[in-house]
Write a structure and sequence with these properties.
Structural class: alpha/beta
Subcellular location: Membrane
Membrane topology: Multi-pass membrane protein
InterPro entries: 2Fe-2S_ferredoxin-like_sf, 2Fe-2S_ferredoxin-type, 2Fe2S_fd_BS, Beta-grasp_dom_sf, FAD-bd_FR_type, Fe3_Rdtase_TM_dom, FNR_nucleotide-bd, MRET
Shape: elongated
Radius of gyration: 28 Å
Number of strands: 18
Enzyme class: oxidoreductase
Pfam family, one: Ferric_reduct
């Protein structure tokens, strides 16, 4: 500690580490913002790494400033360290470093306060990270005493090059990045064999499906669903609730609805080992997004996608589950979940409590990302209690729609096929496209599953679905033609 050169080395080393960590944090933030890494099962740890790099940069910058105060040659005072232009030594380059430090502190602080901040303010502050890296670059180049060393120059060129690439990527993808990326081209339904069935409760049947020949199945992520085309002509979607790492089978759970519209009753009566069903998917419109803290709310059979999400979380992630149902005897996986995570899982059976739990009280004070799957009464109540940016819903039935003027006819131009389609006031856009020999992959035909997503090139869609918010759909430039129509007299679709 008495070596006069020690703090000189500490100042330089900590400054370079802070610069490198800051650049790495910006690069990782770009990857997250552009959703390049969205397909990973549970990308929350990526956000942790982004935040860890930012925190490391802040700590190293603080150490750099402290070492400059302790260095016998520079011997900065507290005022010179924290007040721009107060330093006698190269005041302007030093001032750039001080401003960069304050920007970095503001960006990192906004990350910690993100759940309590308006999204626009948080986003505006985060753009300060680019400015901070640029200021640090000039600060290092103008105030350092060893900028002529080849090692320093090499590090500087690498970090400046990476920062330039990050800025260019962010600019080029800022309009393309969207919370609703177009789904991949839908694969045709393929025959799959029922390999096992087993009762999960007296009303819920577990069904395992495998490819004929035993070949590996496509990868799926928590929240995904299969679409079953049943022999009785019905098409039904069921969430996957097995292990994504098991590529030999898909596992679903089917609740026997009362009264059944025909899908669940047919499966309960006819799905036996050896039965062959036409299956498409998996598709996912209920993805698990990165978050520090999760609150899962499941109603009845809505536990199926939630279970897969919970099992995909790393051990250190903060989460809790509120599982609501008529009775434990009808609530699939309730015993298993309670035994595995007793501190995280709360089961509310109405035959025990007499009433449904008070969701407003449960949500009071929480800043967690809320994921809900269940009946309409539950999802609509949550929609009034949780801010839209933190709420993620998968519905059993379409959300209630506000009154709209009477339906009217409109024209559709399909750009890629150069086809014009007339949609009368008495038919859906999906029906009109199918009649014009432009089939669109669809499933529920109720505006719930999102399978029929189509890109919009021109015109203003009238969104009548329950897949996502109107703002997200307009930003993504998509329409769900099974129920949605057009505000304008014409639409141009990417078909």
């Amino acid at each position: 500690m008495t070596d006069p050169q020690l703090w000189w080395y500490v100042a330089r080393a900590s400054g370079l580490v802070a610069w490198a960590a800051m650049t790495g944090s910006v690069l990782w933030g770009v990857l997250l913002a552009t959703r390049v890494l969205r397909s990973i099962d549970n990308p929350a740890w990526l956000q942790d790494l982004h935040r860890w790099l930012g925190g490391t940069a802040l700590i190293m910058a603080g150490l750099h400033m402290l070492s400059l105060m302790l260095d016998g040659w520079t011997h900065f005072s507290l005022t010179e360290i924290f007040v721009p232009l107060a330093a006698a030594y190269r005041p302007w380059p030093v001032a750039l470093g001080i401003v960069a430090f304050y920007l970095l502190a503001a960006v990192y602080g906004s990350s910690l306060l993100r759940p309590k901040m308006p999204r626009r303010l948080w986003k505006a502050l985060h753009y300060g990270s680019y400015i901070s890296v640029i200021l640090v670059s000039f600060h290092a180049g103008w105030s350092g005493s060893d900028v002529g060393a080849w090692g320093y120059r090499l590090v500087a060129f690498i970090l400046l090059g990476l920062t330039t690439v990050a800025v260019l990527v962010r600019v080029l993808t800022s309009t393309a990045a969207t919370p609703l990326p177009p789904p991949p081209q839908a694969a045709p339904a393929q025959p799959m064999t029922v390999t096992a069935t087993y009762p999960l409760t007296r009303e819920v049947l577990g069904i395992d499906l495998s490819r004929q020949g035993g070949t590996e199945l496509p990868v799926w992520t928590p929240g995904a669903h299969l679409t079953l085309q049943l022999p009785n002509g019905l098409v039904r979607c069921y969430s996957l609730c097995g292990d994504p790492a098991d590529r030999s089978r898909y596992r679903i759970a089917v609740h026997l609805a009362a009264p059944s519209r025909g899908g669940s009753a047919w499966l309960h009566a006819n799905a036996v080992p050896g039965k062959i069903l036409d299956v498409s998917g998996p598709d996912n419109h209920f993805m698990l997004e990165p978050a520090e803290d999760y609150l899962f709310v499941a109603g009845g059979i809505g536990i199926t996608p939630i279970k897969a999400m919970i099992e995909a979380l790393p051990a250190h992630r903060r989460w809790r589950l509120v599982y609501i149902g008529r009775s434990r005897a009808t609530m699939a996986f309730s015993r298993e979940l309670k035994q595995r995570w007793p501190q995280h899982v709360s089961v509310y059976a109405r035959d025990e409590t007499g009433v449904r739990p008070d969701l407003a009280r449960i949500l009071d004070g929480t800043t967690a990302a809320v994921y809900c799957c269940g009946p309409a009464s539950m999802t609509e109540e949550l929609a009034t209690l949780v801010p839209a940016p933190r709420l993620h819903i998968e519905r059993f039935t379409p959300a209630p729609q506000q009154p709209y003027p009477p339906r009217r006819a409109f024209e559709v131009t399909c750009r890629r096929s150069n086809t014009h389609v007339h949609v009368s006031e008495h038919q859906s856009l999906l029906d009109a496209l199918e009649r014009a020999q432009l089939p669109v992959h669809s499933s529920c035909r109720e505006g719930i599953c999102g399978a029929c997503q189509v890109g919009v090139i021109a015109g203003q869609p009238q969104h009548l679905d329950s897949v996502a918010s109107e703002e997200d759909k307009d930003r993504a430039g998509v329409i769900y033609p099974c129920v949605s129509r057009s505000h304008t007299t014409s639409l141009t679709l990417d078909l």
